[in-house]
Amino acid sequence: MASRSPTELLTSLGPDVPNQPPHSTPMSSTSGNGDSRTPPNTVQAACLACRGKHLKCDGNTPCGRCQIHETECIYVASRRGYKGPRRNPPNPGKRPASDSPPSANGDTCSLIASVTRPMATAPSVSTFNPAVVVAESPATPFTASGVNGLQLYRSQYLNGGGALVGPDTQPQQTIPERCLNSFYYYFYPGHPSVLPKEHLLKMAKEKDLAHLLAAMRWVGSLYIDVGPARATYFEEAMRLVYAQDVVRDGYLVQAMVILLIGLDGSCQQEKAREILSHVERIAIEIGLYTRAFATLHGGGVPRVEESWRRTWWDLFVVDGMVAGVHRQTNFLLFDIVADNIPRPMYLEDFDDQVFSGEEREFSSFAYRVASIRNLGRMMRLPNNGFPSEENVSRIESLLSNWRMHLPPTKIDSLNKDCQLDEMMFQAHMINHACSIILHQPLSQLDSSPARDVTACAPHRAVQSGDNFNIHTRHIIKAACEISKMVTYNVPITSHTHFFTCVLTLSSIVHLSKWALYFIHDEDDLRQQVRLNIGALNKLSNVWKAANTASGQVRGVAQEIYRAKKAQQTNPQFWVGFTQEEIISSMAADEGIMSEINTMLTSAP
DNA sequence: TAACTCGGACTTTCAAGAGT
DNA sequence: CTCTTGAAAGTCCGAGTTAT
Predict the structure, then answer these.
(1) Which of A51, A226, A306, A596 lies at a 20 to 30 A Cα distance from A31?
(2) Is the CB of A552 under 7 A from strand B?
(3) Where does a domain end: A288, A310, A330?
(4) Is residue A94 situated within a structural domain?
(5) Taking the model in full, what pTM does it have?
(6) Which of A407, A378, A333 is nearest to A146 (CA)?
(7) How do residues A466-498 score in pLDDT, each as one tens digit?
(8) How many Å apart are A102 CA and B14 C1'?
(9) Which residue places its CA closest to the C1' of nucleotide C10?
């Protein structure tokens, strides 16, 4: 096969067309080499919409059909022919340059990310390996203790007693300064890819970073009250990011990622998706995923090089999270080859450590990337909506392995100073969310109340306890773990806003369990629902999406409650229960419902 | 009758193993 | 190394179904 790198592909497809099809080959594309054995009028890749409908795709971007229907026209890498990683790597012990993707389900990048080594890439680097690990190293330029920037940027806000003081309490700050500080205090720990503040401001004197600073100010302004300045910053950021003469570089990618996360949390998912699609294209076009990018654009400054690597991986993670929680996009970057590994510790090594018996400690950033890659593998399952038992257990093995092989320091999202490691927090969050999404279709918990609130009815008479099937137990466990994550002693709003969506997932599971007519551990359940709703309320102060989620959760709860009440009027319902059990169950239901109502009506 | 769905024929691609 | 083979993943024709 004539392999082409993503950059080559995009270049060959002409200027500035997002989601370009990998290589559409109409008849004319034989271009003299005469080797085109593609049947006349058959394109080598159909867009997702056409593929799904079994219809002919013209290979354009957008294709004719998508253009007519005004739908998003997305082309993804083909996994045709790929049957899993090679069983006998030609050079055991070393990573061969042409090694297979580590994914059990395939990362073959034959189209968007072709097998050809990207230009300007270190030749020894595996091009087929979407790999990577930001290695833990004392030399990591951002913080002395590794990746987590939380401590670094929080420390300046710590008062004498060690209690957290918000950035907004600093005296004599201008509004832009307050917003920037707010960005670093709240947002940065969850998405630590831009340069640390002092270095960024220094850099801004040499380069035009107005767009990036505007985006940072806008997102920072979401956390504090700055009046009409917020809208001004947003307009400014959008104008600068989409300016005709804007330089398409890593800083633009950073600005766009910040904007899209902010928009996604502000209930502007469509706009966020649009930016995501643009930024993906720009990132590929400029080769952000290559090892060479960091070196070429780092100016020999390790801190800057690290920032570029993080920019790619944060975009990768955000792409995965957007796809995972909204199910509108398909985690396009999952199929892209990436080789920007700062240390010779490939993600493939990460996967292999289980078999090599070598328990190395990787950075939290690496565990986060590994976690989102598991989500990608899950999303690439055939029949994603209702996967087979076999496929579910394959992905569950990946999730369990990820958890089981965590070093002791990474198990609880707290670092050695007992401060929250936000990267591990997200890694765990993704793992649990994945577990719920994976097992829900095969579980016994009826999620229909969540899908269609008006159609709510606790259809399934499933008893809790050991009678639950394995899938049900998995999702209940994951939902409980997510609720536990609320209890970490940091401002809940400093977590990534995607935590909102994961909390919603967890709440739906709790409520679905509650929909069963008798719950033995109702106190636990009540506590967990309380935790989730309390957290959603807090998040609503910043993220509009959390506000919407709270409302939806309450809607589901009310619907379930109504249906339960209706069932309970039937004497048959209580057959087999003692008087005490009946009273306790009804009281618990009342309790849960009244708490949900109280908490949500007192929400801001 | 236009629009949509999807079974299935046919093609492409890759991993593995045999042969040189 | 190259060649062959088998299977997975892909494209999209066209028959059947549904919506208007």
Answers:
(1) A51
(2) no
(3) A330
(4) no
(5) 0.65
(6) A407
(7) 456 788 888 889 999 999 999 887 888 889 999
(8) 15
(9) A80
